[in-house]
Amino acid sequence: MDSGFNLAKNNPKKSANFLSKLFFVWLIKLFRRGVKNGISVQDLYLPMASDNSKTLGNKLERYWIMELEEAQKKERKPSLLRALTKTFIGTYLLHGFFMFLHLGLLRSFQPVVLSFFVQMFAEEESSNEHKKTYQYLYGGGLLLLTCIVVFLYHHSTLELSRAGMKARIACSSLLYRKALRLSRKSCGTDTSGQLVNLMSNDFLRFDLVAPMLHTFWIIPIQILLITYFIWEEVGVSSLAGVGAMCILTIPVQGVMGKLSTILRHKVADRTDYRVRLMSELINGIQVIKMYVWEKPFEKIVQTARKREIKMIWYTSHLKGLYNSFSVFTERVTLYFVVICYYLLGNRITASKVFSMAQFFNILQLSMAIYFPLAVQLGAEALVAVKRAEEILMLEERQNIVKRTEDNKGISIERVQASWTSEQHTLKNLNISIPTGMLCAIVGPVGSGKSSILQLILGELNYDKGTVSVNGEIAYASQEPWLFVSSVRQNIIYIENYNKKRYANIVDVCALKKDFQLFPNGDKTLVGERGVSLSGGQRARINLARAIYKEADIYLLDDPLSAVDTHVANHLFDECIAGYLRGKTRILVTHQLQFLKKVDHIIVLNGGIIEGQGTFTELMNSNSPYLQFLAKKEEEMEL
Ligand SMILES: Nc1ncnc2c1ncn2[C@@H]1O[C@H](COP(=O)(O)OP(=O)(O)OP(=O)(O)O)[C@@H](O)[C@H]1O
Question: To test the ligand 1 pocket, which listed residue (187, 192, 450) has its Cβ within 8 A of the most ligand atoms?
Fold first, then answer.
């Protein structure tokens, strides 16, 4: 549960002065360390306050909630893209303007100054009296222009990438928060694979796409400006070059953009499937090894990976094909212009060819590299946003916990709830459990016992009736859940360690003897998902974690079935009926001997309450399920 370290070094950018920021001097220490020893996670600085995941997550969440409300009012689909735009538009536009300055304006002027500079060395200019002064002037201008372009380029690209990084972090934070609120019903779908893939893969596109997005409006302006400059240099011949450049790039880009969206969707789906498959395999690795199913499962994974790689192969080839276009576009266009200019009877000079080579180099960079890259990354980022939207729209847990002063621990009235749209799992449920009562839920397999606990936890949403729960809830699941850490950490979980309480709980959960058997007592490490423990030990540690939490209501899903009768009696008498006395408790169980000791029993069958009351009341009313349990017990005793 603990990542093991915290970043401790303050970010030097915070205290850096203007010059240090301008030349990135604040980073030199880190680079030096990197050159000497390589950089490890411990060397990294604390993020700036404005890059903090909590701050960014809060900001985006605010706009996302506003977007949800607006979409509901206007009866349209909510858009994460709109929320993202509202969150980051300020800084993004400012640095977009700086990008326009260097990419759109200053870069386009560079070849013009270069042309003047080259002209100063041409023979016919030798008569010019101020030739030297102009040479210095244009040379200095060129140098100054290059310096400004370099500074603007680095700082605006860095800040725009930072905006992309912020969008990635904010989206990851928003999805993480959503994942914690998802109902069990939503978790049952393909969600976990999708979440992992989105956070580790899809959202990375934001960092890359952020500096590129401005090219959508800057490049058309740049093209107009450069076309004008080329026109000034070579007149009508410029159209041949710009036309050739447009033909070689725009249609290809359109096709590329469409194809890359389709392929990205396919790759993402196949990666989701593989990640889900792998996580299921790892979860069930014990069973797979036990039945020696390694080879067939290896084949399944290989097939999934092959299908994924096939799509990645197509994407890479498409990228390769397009990159090969960019290599000859610049030369071909320059060739067209020069030939056209010559055929129209003009004389070609060095200043014209040099400046035009530069103009076409810029055009080629923008039209054949930046623009298509922006189209491709934009399409991929859009797919990521759409996929994130799907998760953000999934059903959430209902928060039904109330704190009222009345004596009602749990009250469920006329509730109808279902996991799927086809069938109702719980029907017309009426339960009232006063504070401090010990209530047992019994019923055949699949009758809905665990579903009632999920309903109380707010994990199963209901479409009719009311559920009110008065107080804090602790829950012990039917399937024990353990994480990789010490046994003690598995029990205290996220609560504070209280020696006395902990010792009591170890005692009532019959764990003392087990701790003596462990090599390091309760400090023994639990292996991945508790593989080094027996089923009974896992169930008791899982129960102990729920009991350790100071709560008003304890929901215990069949904790006694994984242990022998002797231990089950100890758990019931010492823990459930003893230590937790005075708390509201719901115990799911199949064991008749405990039903005699509880205050209230609910008999469930097919999602309907077949009967409820004390043990004697139910036996007197000939409850079929209790009769069945009693008969079974008699048979066992014989
Ligand atoms: N997370 C879930 N998603 C979809 N359906 C579910 C989910 N959990 C339970 N169900 C369905 O709800 C019905 C009731 O299941 P539930 O687990 O509540 O029964 P149960 O009485 O606790 O059974 P058992 O004694 O085996 O634990 C079953 O048909 C089951 O398939």
Answer: 450
Contact 435, 408 (CB under 8 A): yes
pTM higher than the cut 0.90: no
- Return contacts of 295-303, CB within 8 angstroms, 24+ apart: 301/274, 301/277
Angstrom distance (rounded) from CA 88 to CA 93: 9
Three-state SS at 100: helix
Query: ipTM, 2 decimals?
Result: 0.95
Pocket probe mutation, ligand 1, options 449, 478, 591, max atoms within 8 Å of Cβ? 449
Alpha carbon nearest to ligand 1 atom 20, residue: 446
Rounded CA separation 227/333 (Å): 13
Burial track 563-597 (b if 16+ CB lie within 10 A, e otherwise): beeebbbbbbebbbbebbeebbbbbbbbbbebbee
Q: How many residues does the chain have?
A: 638
Question: Residue of the nearest CA to atom 23 in ligand 1?
Answer: 446
Please give the distance, rounded to the nearest whole angstrom, from the Cα atom of residue 227 to the centre of ligand 1. Answer: 69
- Closest residue by CA, ligand 1 atom 6: 419
Q: Rounded CA gap, 32 and 522, in Å? A: 44
Classify burial at 314, counting beta carbons within 10 Å of its beta carbon; exposed 0-12, middle 13-18, buried 19 or more: middle
Tens digit of each residue's pLDDT (9 = 90 or more) over 192-227: 888 888 998 889 999 999 999 999 999 999 988 998
